[in-house]
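Question: Now follow the chain.
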Amino acid sequence: SDGDAVVVLKAGLELLLDHGGAVAGQLRYGLGGETTVAARSVERLPVKFYGTWRCPYSHRVWIGLEEKHTEYQWVEIDLYRKGDAGQWRMALEELRELYPDFVRCSQRGRLPALDNDGEHVEDSLILLEYIHEVFVGGPLLPTSPGLRAKVKLWAKHVDLEVAPHFDRLLSAHDAEARGQARNDLVQGLALFEAAMAPQSEGPFFLGDDFSMADIALAPWWLRVISVLRAYRKFDPGAHPRLQVWYEAVEARPSFQRTKVDPERLIEEFSGFADLEESAQFRRVGGSSLARGRR
């Protein structure tokens, strides 16, 4: 009932606050993600999902779990220690001291990770296959061997030809390196678009069927149209098929329940702002971001 839902949400928020507010202070995902994390953090369950809202790889697995309507416990993991000089990734021993259960699940201290009643699995794409096979619910992979191979190939394409160029475009300092990273990212996205089913067959990678290929790209595209648009003047209008695709992705309940607030992402990556690439966007403000998504 609605009353029960309110009780669960309140209990979740109280639990987060009881843990020093570390997660509660970061919960600015937008209503869907915030509500889901609060509710999923309340009860200790056999299925424990170790992730963080910052991580697009964690977001993939989160979508997959919600697609399957899996009963899981959310465990927020912050891999970074912050200080006056900035932030740095904690050593494995530090992580083991702070999050012993997580390091038992992920012996290298990497996110995302899943503990399914003692069965430990890592790596976002491997986890999506595991979730597809282990949990009941809608499929994340097609039954046809040929289509299944295609979905896996293009999910891997995102890791090889989209994610690295996103990182390079954001972190590069000189114009030449940024220009090359931008071209490589545009090419990687264009190749993904070209591999998609015709729009007349449906909005998703395979047409009407939502799959692991869609999940692989969705968190990265969210960051492209928010973070890269804010700080690197990236134009999502150059990819019309992906804009139509993203409208359909956004409408899925699994994405609505896990969506990270774009403004929070922009704030999180504010250290990558510079006057040349960012000033015009920042003067326009948040309404410009909304206009960039058809």
Remarks:
- The two ends are 35 Å apart (CA to CA).
- The beta strands are 47-51, 73-76, 80-83, 86-89, 113-116, 119-122.
- The chain is about 60% helix and 10% strand.
